[in-house]
Amino acid sequence: MARAVALRMLTGAPRSRHQLEEALARREVPEEVAGRVLDRFTEVGLVDDEEYARMLVRSRHSERGLSRRALGVELRRKGVDDETAQAALATIDGDDEERAARVLVRKRLAGTRGLEREVRVRRTLAALGRKGYAPGLVLGLVREELALEGEESDDDAWPLPED
């Protein structure tokens, strides 16, 4: 039964060992049985937390534009240990993160054209904040992008991120 449950879960999408352990525990599979099955799956390469973490970081960063901070939270939530998570997160450098943030800022600003600048800035800061980007980075990118659009820059009118 434990093998069937784990295989069924892995058929849908890759999973961390922790996720599989939790699923087996919910099915009331004895811990020692679950451990043996998952050890064997790890041995044959069906469960690989390092590859899982790298794949998750690559896909979530490129498809959803998540920041390293948000990705780290997601990896911890899925039970990936800190060392494995840090190795996977190291595949994204500061330049990659800034490029992704810039793309998101442009998208968000394009979708808010016609609104007041304060509203555009606030919505963009909020959207990227939910993806884990630092307010200072986002605000700098918003300023640059609005300048490219020809918006006048009145530094006193810019909302400051709250601590």
Topology (SSEs and partners):
Elements: H1 2-12, H2 17-26, H3 31-43, H4 49-64, H5 68-77, H6 82-89, H7 94-111, H8 117-130, H9 135-149
Describe the structure.
The chain contains nine helices and no strands. α4 crosses α6 and α7 crosses α9. The radius of gyration is 21 Å and the shape is elongated. By secondary structure, it is an all-alpha fold. It has three domains: 42 residues, no CATH class; 41 residues; 64 residues. The model has no long low-confidence stretch (mean pLDDT 91).
Describe the structure concisely for a colleague:
The protein has 163 residues and is mostly helical. The protein contains nine helices and no strands.
Structural class: mainly alpha
Q: Which overall shape is indicated by the principal axes computed on the Cα atoms? A: elongated
Strand-and-helix sequence, N→C?
HHHHHHHHH
Strand content: under 5%
Query: Low-confidence stretches at least 5 residues in length (pLDDT < 50)?
Result: none
**Percent helix:** over 70%
Main sheet record:
none
Note the gap between the termini: 50 Å
How many structural units, i.e. domains?
3
Compute the CA-based radius of gyration: 21 Å
